[in-house]
Structures are given as C-alpha cells and as structure tokens.
Amino acid sequence: MDFSTPIGSLSGVGKKRCECFYNLGIHNVEDLLYHFPRAYQNRGNILPLAMTPDGTVGAFMLTVATKPQTFTLKNRKQITKFVAFDESGKCTLTFFNQPFIKDIFHVGDEFRFYGKLSVKYNTRELSSPSYEPVIPGKKLQSLIPVYPLTEGLTQMFVKSVTELAFNTLEFGNYDFPDIFRTETTEKMGLMNLKDALREIHFPTDIEKVKKARERFVFEELYAFALGLSMSKKYKKDGNAIPMEDTDISEFLSILPYSLTRAQDRSVKEILSDMSNESRKPMSRLLSGDVGSGKTVCAAIALYVAVKNNTQSAFMAPTEILATQHYNDLAPIFEKLGIKTALITGATTASTKKKIYESVSAGDTKVVIGTHALLNEKLEFEKLGLVITDEQHRFGVRQRSALADKTKKDGYEPHVLVMSATPIPRTLALILYGDLDISALDELPPGRKPVDTFLVDESYRERLNGFIRKNAQNNQVYIVCPMVDESDDEEEALLPFDFTSEDVEKKEKINLRSAVALAETLKNETFPDLPIGLIHGKMRSSEKDRVMRDFEQNKIKILVSTTVIEVGVNVPNAVLMVIENAERFGLSQLHQLRGRVGRGKDKSYCVLVSSSDSEKAKKRLKVMCSTNDGYKIAEADLEQRGPGDFFPNNKGDARQSGGIKFRFASLCDMELLKKAFDEAEAVLNDDRTLSNPENKGAFRYMQRLFLRLRNS
Ligand code: ADP
Ligand code: MG
C-alpha cells in the first residue's frame, strides 16, 4: 500500500462506501489521510454521574451492574436497557434496535461511555452513547476525532478505515512522501509528515495536534509559494508577437493633460515588456489607487498593440465598468482612426454577430467588454494584447482563457492586469507572484482629499441634515453591509477550537439592511427626495437602470450594498455615508470612499459606527487621517492580516476566482513570507524540483494548483 492506493481497495470499502468517499473528494489513501477531523471530542475528562447536571455531554467511566434486557415497544422498536454505575451513583443505559448489545455488556465489565446525560427525578439515563471497553494495559484515547461525513459513512467507519490505512503504511515501513526537505523541517521546527498525520488522527494531546496542524498549514503555503515562484521564474519565453518601440507622441498630444511621473514610469515598463527582444510575453500587474489614472496607461498599451498591427482586448468585471471604459476610450481611439467595439451581456445578438465578423476580419482593433469576451465565437485575427481590469473579480482561469484565444497560431498575447486595490508591495509579490508589478503610487495633480468623519448613532439627526444639504445640488451614496445569514448550529461537541471568531459571528448583529433603510428614507426621512436602491440580488438590467438614473441625477440618494464598490464614476456625487462601517475592511472602505471626490465639488465621507471595540475605532480612524490608498492598505495588512486582500468568495462566487486553501487561512503574513523565503531557497538549489528530495513537493504543488484553479 502507498499514498496512491485507491480507496476502494481498502478492506471494508465496498462499492457503495467507495462512492461515499468520492463524494468527500477522497479517492486514495493520501486523500483519506488528509481528510482531517473537524473537531475532537474530549473524552479524557471523566464526569461523575451524581454531580453532572441534566443535558451535559461528556464521558463517563461505568461498570455494568445488570444484564441487558431487550423489550419490543408498541411501535415495534426494540429497546435494550441495563444499569451501570460509578463511585458516585448509577444510571440506565438505553440502546434502540441493537439487540446484539447484550453480547457486548457483561456484568462487572467497565466501559467508557460518551453521550448526553439526562437527569429526571433523580433517575439518570444515557441514550445510545458511544462506548469503548476498558482493557487493562491499554490506554484509552482521550481525544476522539470527529470527521466531516457524508451520507452513508459513520464516524466509527471513517475512523477505523483511517486507522487501518495508517497502520498498514507504518508497519510496512512506508516512506511517507514529505514535501519538506530535512533542512526545512529542522529550521522551521516542523513535525515530520508521519508523526503529524498520526497526531491528527490519533492525538495524544491537544498541543501536539496544534503542532501537527501548523505543519499542514505551512505545507500548503509552501506549496502555494513554490507554484507561484516557479511560474514566475521559469516562464518560457519567446513566442509573443514581436512589437517595435513605438512613438506614442501622437497619442499623448490628444490628451488634455500630461502624464504623472508614476504614469510615465509605468508606461515605459509596459512598453519595454511589449517590445522585449526575447519576445517573452508581458505579464504585468498595474496596481494603482482609485483615480490614479490606470485607464490612460491601459489605453497607451492598446494603442501600441494596434500600431504593431495587432488587435487587443480589454476585459472588465462588470457591465457598468466595461461600458465606462468604452465611453472613455472609444472617442480617443476614433480620433486616431482605430476601430473600437463593446461587447457585454446586454449587446444584442445581431450587433454581436457584426462585431465578431469585424474582429475576425481584423477590422476592429480594440474590443472592450465583460467576460462576454470569452465567448468562443469571438475570434481575433491577431490578438497582441489582453488587458483585464481585475478588481479582484477574475481568477487566473479567465485571465488565461482570454489569452488562449490566439494560441492556435502559435503566438501568445501580452497580458496586462489592472488592480484598483492598492496592495502593499510585500503582499503584491505574493498575490501576483507570477506577474511583474508597476505601481501608480501618485495621484494626478489637483485632487482634493475627501474629508472623512467617524460618527456614532447620536449624530443621526445631524447626519440626516448633512445628507439633505448635499442632496440639494449634488448626490449622495449610502452604503450598508451585506447581511450574512450563515449561522450554522453546531452540535454539542467539546470542540477543539481551531477558529476563535465564532463568538463574534454568533452575536446577534443589528445591521442596517439596504432594503429596509431605503424604505425608511423614502417614507419617513426624505419623502420629498428621489431615492434609489441597488443591491447584488437585483437583475443586472435593473441595476443598470438604477445606475443610469443616478448618473443622470434623477436619483439623489442611492442606497446600496457594496455592489457600487467597483469603479463607478459619478462626479456629481459628493457624500459617501457608510453604515456599520466597522463591518468593512479598510481597503474596502477606501474603495467605497473613492466613489466621491471625482468632480469639482468638495466631497465628504461619513463612517457611521456604534461599535465599542477600541480596535475597530482605531481602524476606522486611519480612514479619517489619510487618503493614501497604499498607507491604508499597509494599515489593513498590519491590523487584519492579508486575508482581506484575497478574493475569497466575497463577490459573486462564479466570478470571484477565489483562493480556497484547506488548512492555511492566509491570516499570517509572517508565515506567508517564510513560506515564500523557503520556496525561494529550495528553487535556487533545484529550479525544476526534480531532486528526489523535492519530488513530493512537486507533486503536492501540482495537486494544490489543480484544486485552486478548479475551485
Ligand atoms: P483609475 O486608476 O481609478 O482607473 P482613471 O483612469 O479612471 O483612474 O482616471 C481618473 C481620472 O483622472 C480620469 O478622469 C482621467 O481623465 C484623469 N487623469 C488621468 N491621468 C491624469 C493626469 N496625468 N493628469 C490629470 N488627470 C488625469
Ligand atoms: Mg478605473
């Protein structure tokens, strides 16, 4: 037996159970051993019968006092009962439809039971508890794993198959394929794979389980780091469409402004990638704060691609944004005689057809759109450049799907990714490990900072007055957090606490829902003002209608969830009110605030929060003290860890391209850095991971990325 042994060939796993394991994603022994308990029952703490209150779940060490008797009830259920005792008292044990029980429990034998004790009028009962015989010389495990299950599998069964698999490997002196080389294990003080697996499934104490768990967290981060570092370092070069140094002065001359220094630098970096003699395709991230002028940089790249007789595609995450880009760019390109088209979900079939024809004939040079661009029928004659406005919505998969559109003629287009989330450089290196980075860390001149205030409920009256005032000549956004309804009821376990956020989750939160707030404003607070509502559950045609009305100043106050976070541009909006601001990450607040301060009028942002938490207040005050997205991102990273920067299923699950790890949570920047350092060190010695010592790492890394891409 080894890690690749199919689950179905283990004894006891027949066809039916095999299917059940498949449902859990378990196909072989490795999967089985990496199927970790979700909690541990603590059976080490033995409770005395007489002192234990009704309803307690726990372990009892009892001696059988009477012979089990089986009765048949009226409903034809069979019930088997007997009495057992400890030093403090006695208790009735009850089992249903398990008459064979009588052959297990003999008078005088001692067992450890685990279950819920009921106490009624001084009689105690344990109904269908789990049980283990006390055998002299054999120590009972005090921590019992509780596995995630699926229909058709029981705890007992998963536990016994896992035990069987592990023991067979161990007795067979199997060489567990450790992903880490010995050096790493020693340096990081990690448990080796065999010991860690043993501790996870057959724990001796909770501290060791934690230690084992740490190993698996680091293992996953390390594999992640290896994959990203490898793809960046050893990317094959040589098959991009050759482009020449291009004179962009004609383009620059029609801009009503000159480029900022940061734009100039970034454009040079982009153009140098595109005309690189090695013909290695560009794969670059252009990161820049809201309003830093990314669009014009993108436009220059598009222009250069066109000047080199190729076409280019520009993909945005939402219809609103794609349309906006088109409206910004099409007039400029038209002046330059460059044919430009827009494709979104709203484009009619007949228009689409015309565009497809024009694109495949090479007439239309620049195509802007949503993921509608991924449609198979869109074929380029010669695609030279792909730009995705990422905004954390697209995953790697879509990015390469678009780039793949020209692979058939052997060329690979250049790829530019834009992100409006200022990301601290340390983290950007990790998040976008496979990309080179240009940062627009400077805003165009003349921007007025948005004045930001933090207020609590006692300011409500004054706030309403302020809203009314700003809605008079201008417009106002009011943003509410999304209401999270996931509130899983956990069974009464004594869980080993891997995550400690549950307390916060459990507290009943009184969130201002966008829908309810819009109603109140309409009916009570501002009955005389036109009020709009937009949220993620609305149809996209409806959303577009509301956004258009807002753009055209037909709506004065727009109540919304975070759907407006992404790149919306209404310069007449001058006030951003954010309810329950403590529920948002700093970077997200910064994005939201970026919706105002876009026009000639002075703009404001009001953060409403009644949270008493000092930590929350400190966080929100960062917003009041600076408008610099990079500073805010640093603070966010420092205070909340890098988790918030990952597109973890926050938006639309289909579009999020989220990164889902099994063990790692990406909350620990230090650990993430260590993983990258370690990966770097290993790759320096063995760039293709082909040393026998690194074979396990290579395999694990491949599997991890397969899973991440498919999730
Ligand atoms: P973002 O980086 O958020 O996409 P945009 O590209 O939409 O920012 O630019 C925001 C605004 O700044 C636009 O109205 C654009 O015309 C303007 N802008 C861009 N670059 C400059 C510049 N160098 N000088 C003055 N205004 C600029
Ligand atoms: Mg933009």
Can you offer a commentary on this structure?
The structure is a single chain. The protein is an alpha/beta fold and 711 residues long. Helices cover 38% and strands 17% of the residues. The chain contains 23 helices and 22 strands. Helix 5 crosses helix 6, helix 6 (206-233) packs across helix 23 and helix 8 packs parallel to helix 9. The longest helix has 28 residues, at 206-233. The model is unreliable at 484-510 and 647-658 (pLDDT under 50). The structure holds adenosine-5'-diphosphate and magnesium ion. The site of adenosine-5'-diphosphate has 14 residues, from helix 9.
The secondary-structure class comes to alpha/beta
What oligomeric state do these chains adopt?
A: single chain
Give the termini distance in whole angstroms.
Answer: 30 Å
What does the largest sheet look like?
A: 7 strands, parallel
**How many DSSP H or I helices?**
23
The parts where pLDDT drops under 50 for at least 5 residues are: 484-510, 647-658
Beta-strand portion reads 15-25%
Question: What is the general shape?
Answer: globular
- Order of neighbouring strands in the sheet with most strands: 12-13-11-14-15-10-16
User: Measured on Cα atoms, how large is the radius of gyration?
Assistant: 31 Å
Total strands: the figure is 22
Q: How much helix is in the residues? A: 25-40%
Which small-molecule species are bound to the chains here? adenosine-5'-diphosphate, magnesium ion
